[in-house]
Amino acid sequence: MKTTILIHCPDQAGIIATVTSFISKNEGNIVYLDQHVDKPANVFFMRTVVEFEEHFSHLDHFKSLFQKELATAYNMKWSLHTDDKLPKMVIFVSKYKHCLYDLLSRYRSGELAVEIPFILSNHNDLKQIADQFNIPFYHIPFNKENRLEAEKKQLALLEKYEADFIVLARYMQIVSGTLINRYPNKIINIHHSFLPAFAGAKPYHAAFKRGVKIIGATSHYVTEELDAGPIIEQDVTTVTHSHSIKDFIAKGRDLEKIVLSRGVMLHIARKTMVYNNKTVIFS
Amino acid sequence: MKTTILIHCPDQAGIIATVTSFISKNEGNIVYLDQHVDKPANVFFMRTVVEFEEHFSHLDHFKSLFQKELATAYNMKWSLHTDDKLPKMVIFVSKYKHCLYDLLSRYRSGELAVEIPFILSNHNDLKQIADQFNIPFYHIPFNKENRLEAEKKQLALLEKYEADFIVLARYMQIVSGTLINRYPNKIINIHHSFLPAFAGAKPYHAAFKRGVKIIGATSHYVTEELDAGPIIEQDVTTVTHSHSIKDFIAKGRDLEKIVLSRGVMLHIARKTMVYNNKTVIFS
Amino acid sequence: MKTTILIHCPDQAGIIATVTSFISKNEGNIVYLDQHVDKPANVFFMRTVVEFEEHFSHLDHFKSLFQKELATAYNMKWSLHTDDKLPKMVIFVSKYKHCLYDLLSRYRSGELAVEIPFILSNHNDLKQIADQFNIPFYHIPFNKENRLEAEKKQLALLEKYEADFIVLARYMQIVSGTLINRYPNKIINIHHSFLPAFAGAKPYHAAFKRGVKIIGATSHYVTEELDAGPIIEQDVTTVTHSHSIKDFIAKGRDLEKIVLSRGVMLHIARKTMVYNNKTVIFS
Amino acid sequence: MKTTILIHCPDQAGIIATVTSFISKNEGNIVYLDQHVDKPANVFFMRTVVEFEEHFSHLDHFKSLFQKELATAYNMKWSLHTDDKLPKMVIFVSKYKHCLYDLLSRYRSGELAVEIPFILSNHNDLKQIADQFNIPFYHIPFNKENRLEAEKKQLALLEKYEADFIVLARYMQIVSGTLINRYPNKIINIHHSFLPAFAGAKPYHAAFKRGVKIIGATSHYVTEELDAGPIIEQDVTTVTHSHSIKDFIAKGRDLEKIVLSRGVMLHIARKTMVYNNKTVIFS
């Protein structure tokens, strides 16, 4: 069984040796280790992948030992993930097709190690894509009047299906604090600019007006401040004076779908850690 | 003699045919033509490179005909450039070496078809590089008190040497409206971010704080609004959580020097046109 | 009606003026013009988009005039394309899903202005994707013994459905000279390397073995010499020592699908011309 | 004192724990650790940066303990580097200026932590650049007749100045096996293509002829097989049909200088390890 352990804690001398020795003594073989120290913040980050001996049968014992002997002493925040259960990923969409198609195509091609219990939208337009891929689709209209009630329905569905994380695949709606607090660093959004440039609505129009020579896309975890959450992945492409806003949008679609899918894949692989509104990406 | 003609005017049907026929009738052979229509603004742009017949000896006549028969009728802004005289490029620097070294190395390698009459700085630090390349160096200190007087000296030098355009090679000072108005779209600056992100001072610190995964550089014509002038060229490079601010600065240096030099080369080759605070780059 | 005219011919002075004047005189308004001269080969290329006056009703007359007055005199190869009929694009696949999913997703999203009369494969694996998108699927097994017969069936289908061009979406089979000659510069393949590096089979394995730091993909027109046809589009991505062959393949999938789709879109938009086994891409 | 330790050896369980515990016990604080396992080859690689306690004064003792307790047991190849002495870098050039200018500009700007004892060339053309930067320049002509004698002179100079490594900054000569064996994985070359494409001479001409849409550059360690040594760094840029061979060369110059300098900087920082004709780059 492949086990991924994520740790962060105040930095101090000897910490790598201590953790790796602990794992060795407890019958784990470290097959991957990456570490980072955020010096200004004095925080130590570590991601390690461990394979336990075949007869190993006491992960709960390992975890309680880890907590007692290491985590408490070093004031660690840590988590341990095994690969025996697929995480449940819910997709929120609005009317744009390209990100949804890309995610579902990868899912059916075996590129995403998840379950997709359902797709949720405030419009009915993309139901036919959900049908095409045989995934339940819920249409929960959303407007100023029914806002609270709609959110309640969303949360009920997420609970019912035991969602692990949410992907906003060009969802085009601002997500409420309630939802964000329920899924901290577990809601991934795609913004169609190289943030922090052109935060907010209509970034391609703003980019065209400014006359930039590159456009971009950014996948990030959603926080309460709009388009200001921890950035997971960014990419850009060049544009010239000869490209219209329509061309920006067309070129941007390819960026958006790739950058969102890369962000999702990093999240699934437990390669992301969040601290101080920034990510550590052990890729 | 190679002649470059730049035109922009309100768009209308038949304009390409009219201009190209005029040139043909007047013994010019079009060896390159690029054209662009800014549809929202309804403006036509054209850059054409013309070779005249060997016996051709009346460029002034051509120019006055062009004005009379075409430019007035079509309400054109136009300019004509021959390659028999090198433009005079003045470099303003402060304390950073990399952009100056890159420009002077290209100059000495024959990559920049310019004369460099002098280098100007508010500090004395880079005099030795100017000496190394045998280029006059003027040190004009600059502070709140002597601001106006210093500018007067700058302008006097620029006039005396008949500067055609100015390159701010990490000059680190805000250029006054007087200078900008004297050299409109003729002052090229390098900003160390992918504008409009992180305009203003200390962009690498801001980028680090925001946790972006790409950093960039932008060369642009200087206008009175800080870091908001027409963008000539941009490029980016990737960064990760493992890069410190010092790493951002080091990676950024390579971007800055390349993006500035590309901007300068486009300007020298008459491949840039400015309209509505944006550039048309016929590259 | 939007009309695209593609021309190439021996270069000579005055040719742009002659063509643009001809179009103007014949009630066409040039909305786009791009031109290129291959100097070593002394060949002139031009792509122009023309809008004819509303009452214009004699495209056949225009074409015969164009041939008589221009094409014969200048020894032009030329073609004229109107946008009133969608080209018919046939997709050949084998077992890989990602390129097929990307093409069909774009098709359903309205990004590809084509009809897809059918998908053809030497395996049955991807029939379910064709079904999912409601597109006819033909399974024609292919082996050493039935080679000629299988090709006959392929050709019969292509004729029956009046295919305009063919996309090999990771087809994994060598296409015969018969098919290539029937569809010259009309069969688009995706090769999973930055050609000419790693031509032939298993490029990711070869790239891994060589220890390259970039991998790439190339879309090109198929010619009889394997992986040596005119290149339409290429792109690359970085890899490191930490990536396994499996990682190369995963990163490559994203390159392949984007580079193939871009090549297909350039072809559909009539932005490609082929000469001397190279492409001129008026993008 | 900052100490960098590089290790590679057959992979086995527990090795990270063993090494890190050893360092901790011997008063070293691990400030950076990166590790890699080449699974097909079953080789473990590790780079760690260690800071020893202030009173630490027995590096020789540490080294002999390391050899005895770890290296022998694990069959390690290892090296330990302190930062108290700058490595001596010799530059070989021919007639091209751009890479030499870039290296010397970085050197004078403090970007390269080396000494440059001398520059060597088979031509006299670049002597003036060496003079400009006050670095000794040796002109050793090189031809079929004097080959062996010239090499002897080269080796004598390298010995005399105690060169640590050699940079071929567009040297344009094939280096002999004698020199390569004397400086294994210590001669860095820049090749002006994205190897393995266009190995050998005149890669830009070959790239132009093939009609590629990207060109590149590769820095690599020199081995006896031409252009086939371990790749350190590669980068590419896009080209179009409109670029002539001259344009390829101009765009390539910027790639070459950046890719060579990056390769040199990785080497200086001890971030490169070589195994099976490939590099592990801990960047």
TrEMBL record, chains A, B, C, D:
Signal sequence bounds = none
Name all ACT domain ranges. 4-85
Per the record, the domain of life is Bacteria
Biological process GO terms, please? Answer: 'de novo' IMP biosynthetic process; one-carbon metabolic process
Q: Which UniProt keywords apply?
A: Hydrolase, One-carbon metabolism, Purine biosynthesis
A Pfam family annotated for this chain is ACT
- Pathway membership of this protein? Purine metabolism; IMP biosynthesis via de novo pathway; formate from 10-formyl-5,6,7,8-tetrahydrofolate: step 1/1
Entry keyword annotation includes Magnesium: no
The Gene Ontology terms for molecular function here are: formyltetrahydrofolate deformylase activity
Active site, per annotation: 227
Q: Which reaction does it catalyse?
A: (6R)-10-formyltetrahydrofolate + H2O = (6S)-5,6,7,8-tetrahydrofolate + formate + H(+)
Q: What is its EC number?
A: 3.5.1.10
EC top class, as a word? hydrolase
- Note the PANTHER family from the entry: FORMYLTETRAHYDROFOLATE DEFORMYLASE, FORMYLTETRAHYDROFOLATE DEFORMYLASE 2, MITOCHONDRIAL
As for what it does, the entry says: Catalyzes the hydrolysis of 10-formyltetrahydrofolate (formyl-FH4) to formate and tetrahydrofolate (FH4).
In the record, the note on similarity to other proteins reads: Belongs to the PurU family.
Name of the featured protein: Formyltetrahydrofolate deformylase
- State the organism of origin: Maribacter ulvicola
Lineage start: Bacteria, Pseudomonadati, Bacteroidota, Flavobacteriia, Flavobacteriales
